[in-house]
Design brief:
The chain is mainly beta. It contains four helices and 24 strands. The strands form six sheets. It has a four-stranded antiparallel β-sheet, with helices on one face. It starts with a helix and ends in a 5-residue tail after the last strand.
């Protein structure tokens, strides 16, 4: 009897574990659902999970002639065209030798930015060069149409839409960057640009950025009134180079962008969080620090124990303060599982 109970317990645990693994594989589930709805998904897809949002390159099995950006609302199982087939056909035929598509959405899933990256060659013989440019479109899900388009003579990457869906920002660089960069770490061809999607007005928030911005990316305040983003400092050898954190009050002149230089352990910036009092929490590889709203008075808030590391995705600001997890692993056993520890950091005003 006990043996039967043990087998039943093992079987139950197997099915639970299988179910948990399947639940975590959001992309695979979306693939299956999209196919059941009658769509093909391109191998060159660009899809990700964000509050039930799945963006991918695909087509209807019978009617569509080519792959194009599509959107699956996981909660309703509806597939919407981000760009009508005729419109995307005109983009596809735009004198391009190759096309890739980058997609980004605002947190409310009301606007989706599409970056159609176009590669083509100009010139002949030794003068032949590859040119990389972008066609930027913003698709309004409530209006079900493209509300912004720009055929840019620069190459865009890392698109980010403000939570209210009004502003679009990204890193841009010259169209000929692929030939002239030669992995030169001193190249400062990147810019950070922001576009007001209602007026079409554009501002350059950072006129010069070296290659490879830090992983923290763009961070918007919940009310879309402030934007923080990092860039690498362009002076000094790459091993000693710091990180410049900039903050823009949305709508202000780009001349009023505030900045601070982060050096040492603080230069490995992984995440930025706006706190309720407009100050900032910066999560780096080895510590969490805070900055005043004007980027002054850096203060160390938390340093993990020796041989412990941050679980960056777990860091959140809530009613009780800043919550996070740290993890460690038995050095003597390289195959050992991570051991996690929950931490809550009280913050002023919370």
């Amino acid at each position: 009897m006990r043996l039967k109970q043990w087998y039943a317990y093992v079987a139950w645990m197997f099915f639970v574990a299988t179910g948990l693994c399947a639940a975590r594989d959001f992309t695979s589930e979306c693939h299956d659902r999209v196919q059941k709805l009658g769509y093909w998904v391109s191998r060159a897809e660009n899809g990700y999970s964000k509050e039930g949002l799945f963006l991918f390159m695909g087509k209807e099995q019978r009617s569509a002639r080519s792959y194009r950006p599509l959107y699956l609302d996981y909660k309703t199982s509806r597939v919407l065209d981000l760009i009508p087939e005729e419109e995307f056909g005109r983009i596809r035929d735009w004198e391009a030798e190759g096309i890739e598509v980058e997609l980004s959405a605002d947190p409310k899933r009301e606007a989706v930015a599409i970056n159609v990256e176009c590669y083509r060659f100009v010139g002949e013989g030794k003068d032949k060069k590859q040119i990389c440019t972008s066609i930027i479109l913003v698709y309004s899900l409530p209006e079900k149409k493209v509300v912004f388009r720009e055929d840019s003579d620069r190459y865009w990457s890392e698109l980010s839409i403000s939570p209210d869906g009004r502003y679009l920002c990204g890193y841009t660089h010259p169209s000929n960057f692929a030939i002239e960069r030669d992995w030169n770490e001193n190249l400062t061809g990147y810019q950070v640009e922001a576009v007001d999607l209602k007026s079409g007005q554009k501002q350059i928030l950072a006129p010069e950025c070296p290659l490879f911005p830090p992983s923290a990316g763009f961070c918007w305040s919940d009310d879309s009134k402030e934007l923080a983003f990092p860039q690498l400092a362009s002076s000094g050898p790459s091993t000693l180079r710091g990180t410049i954190l900039k903050k823009w009050n949305v709508g202000d002149s780009s001349r009023n962008v505030k900045e601070i230089l982060l050096e040492g352990d603080r230069r490995s910036l992984a995440k930025v969080i706006f706190l309720p009092d407009r100050s900032l929490a910066l999560i780096t590889a080895r510590q969490i620090l805070t900055l005043d709203s004007d980027l002054r008075n850096p203060k160390t808030l938390f340093v993990p124990e020796k041989d412990n590391w941050f679980d960056f995705d777990s860091v959140q600001c809530g009613p009780s303060g800043l919550s996070l997890q740290t993890w460690t692993r038995d050095k003597a056993n390289p195959n050992a599982e991570r051991t996690f520890k929950k931490v809550t950091l009280p913050l002023p005003g919370i």
